[in-house]
Specification:
mainly beta; 7-stranded antiparallel beta sheet; 5-stranded antiparallel beta sheet; 38 strands; disordered N terminus
Length: 570
């Protein structure tokens, strides 16, 4: 059924039923996208239902019929997606809001054309181009967005979904009728003390391929793009979805400013894909790293560079790695970003297909940069690299004692496993104010991953030094992954007080309360003089860490830091 009430029969053809397709499969060897599949066409033959795939103008919107189970509408005044009907159910919209770039572009030039098995809708608004594409027989909407410059606000695409269609009790859901607002306009506490926010669905970009929901019969997913024109690198976290009492949303983030460490990149982003399935996850062939986009080469997308215009980087290995850590090789310049996982056994890596240019190559141990160099990518070629040797891993340096490990993350510290999916005040978190941490007997898991000036200041660490170690001064290193409100640590060792260091350059937005510990990975070093020690090998030395800042804020929005490692080195 088309959304304006016109049936397929009115166009002279009856839409094939699932039974029809199964019979055709048995007779002619066609493949049905069953179970969790819709990546390929439900009808493999282009002439199985010749009029099912097409479009028309209903006077206000272009109505696109995919030839599968999906019909969608694009308003030809502004480029909004105004209807998504899958198997007769309308999924688009809550309230009076459509799906669109940012919060809607307003008056735009919108055109449509059919080229072979592809229908392309082009939306032009100033210097920005947005595209919707349908492929014959697929339950997918392919999208691209080209934000060419800063003249237009366009930082996301949001698919707005009607309420009540999918079950949901995830960290990114709330119900304003029962839950209490606790921070800004986007974090709430449920009656049982747990917290929810649209920020808490976040995952590192490197770890997810799609996000969405399923009711067991229908799945609705946003398959992310390769993020080559996004910012923040492989470990960045941004909005992915939300689910409230009045509707839900799926996001493709073009640029996200929350706890962002990089400037905005401009250019074509995509394809990202809105995919409907029979309940399961999208088929692997829709994944951003294997998706076949050769059909887009001839569409004339502004900014599109096909595979023939790209190159790759291959490395035979990475030496100097430590057991138990994941290694990632990142590539970045002002125009693009990419990454590849290094093989756990050999360190071998192969980049995605990249735009030509010179990039900074960075090897990450977990999330900590431990090696950098420059590499040039040439179209149509694979640049081969010899083994990369890690020489800048601080974990390899001798230490008198160390709390935590150098990973670029707060992993291993108290509450670290919880903080990307809940607010620090959540009832599931262990208390932030801790007792004295004693080196050699206290576990790293007892030391808090975050410290705030107004929550758990004056963290104390006790340790002993040998008589030989007492004869000289030492360096105390405090590694942080990010800081909020110019927070930075000042230390006291017994009666000796350090100067307050200058704040590291960190994002100025919220971080620790919105599920992100990722920042600039800065290390503060303090030269502790020999005069600071209590001159007895039997005595405990006492280190006190305070968070200082010239900025205000209270409770969990007071100045704070996220810890990576703390160590005393010769």
């Amino acid at each position: 059924m088309l959304t304006n009430g016109t049936t397929m029969a009115a166009h002279g053809h009856r839409r094939p039923t699932r039974r029809d397709v199964l019979l055709r499969t048995a007779a002619g060897g066609l493949v049905l996208g069953g179970g969790a599949a819709v990546a390929g066409p439900l009808l493999a033959s282009a002439d199985a239902a010749p009029s099912a795939f097409g479009y028309r103008d209903d006077g206000r919107a272009y109505v696109v019929t995919t030839g599968a189970d999906l019909v969608f509408k694009v308003d030809h005044r502004n480029g909004d997606l105004t209807s998504l009907v899958h198997k007769g159910t309308e999924y688009q919209g809550y309230g009076n809001r459509n799906s669109h770039v940012e919060t809607g572009l307003g008056a735009s030039s919108v055109g449509i054309r059919k080229t072979g098995d592809t229908i392309l809708v082009t939306v032009v608004h100033g210097t920005m181009h947005h595209y919707y594409a349908a492929r014959r027989g697929e339950n997918n909407v392919y999208m691209w967005t080209n934000k060419a410059d800063a003249s237009i606000t366009a930082t996301r695409y949001i698919v707005r979904v009607r309420p009540g269609l999918f079950p949901n009790d995830n960290p990114d859901t709330w119900d304003a009728r029962t839950d209490t607002l606790i921070e800004a306009q986007d974090i709430r506490r449920k009656p049982n003390g747990t917290t929810r926010s649209k920020h808490y669905s976040n995952q590192r970009v490197i770890d997810y391929d799609h996000v969405g929901w399923s009711d067991g019969r229908t799945g609705m997913w946003m398959v992310r793009s390769n993020h080559e024109k996004a910012s923040g690198g492989p470990f960045y976290r941004s909005l992915m979805r939300h689910h409230y009492e009045d509707g839900a949303g799926l996001y493709e983030i073009l640029y996200y400013g929350e706890n962002q460490t990089e400037p905005m990149r401009f250019g074509l982003q995509g394809p990202y894909v809105l995919a409907f399935t029979d309940g399961g996850a999208p088929a692997r062939s829709l994944s951003h790293d294997v998706i076949d986009t050769s059909w887009a080469d001839g569409l004339g997308l502004v900014g599109w560079v096909g595979r023939a215009g790209r190159g790759r980087v291959a490395g035979v290995g990475v030496s100097g790695r430590s057991d138990g850590h994941a290694y990632t090789v990142g590539f970045a310049n002002a125009a693009a970003q990419y990454w590849a996982k290094a093989d756990a056994a050999t360190g071998h890596f192969l980049s995605p297909y990249m735009l030509p240019g010179t990039y900074t190559l960075t090897v990450y141990k977990d999330e900590l940069a431990v090696h950098t160099e420059s590499v040039t990518v040439t179209a149509g070629k694979t640049t081969a690299l010899h083994t990369l040797r890690i020489t800048a891993d601080p974990s390899r340096n001798p230490a008198i004692w160390r709390i935590g490990d150098w990973t670029g993350t707060p992993a291993g510290f108290r509450n670290a496993t919880l903080m990307t999916t809940m607010h620090p005040s959540d009832a599931r978190a262990r208390p932030w104010a801790t007792g004295v941490h004693t080196v050699g007997s206290s576990a790293a898991a007892d030391f808090p991953c975050y410290q705030w000036a107004d929550i758990n200041n004056e963290l104390k660490i006790r340790f002993r030094l040998t008589q030989q170690q007492l004869a000289s001064g030492h360096t105390l290193n405090i590694g942080i992954t990010t800081a909020f409100a110019n927070g930075r640590p000042r230390i006291r060792v017994n009666d000796w007080l350090s100067a307050a260091p200058q704040p590291a350059k960190e994002p100025t937005t919220r971080s620790l309360t919105v599920g992100s510990y990722r920042g600039s990975n800065h290390t503060y070093s303090y030269a502790v003089p020999v005069s600071a020690w209590i001159k007895s090998a039997d005595a405990y030395q006492e280190l006190t860490i305070d968070i200082v800042s010239g900025s205000g804020g209270t409770a969990y929005l007071s100045p704070g830091v996220s810890y990576d490692a703390i160590e005393l080195v010769p």
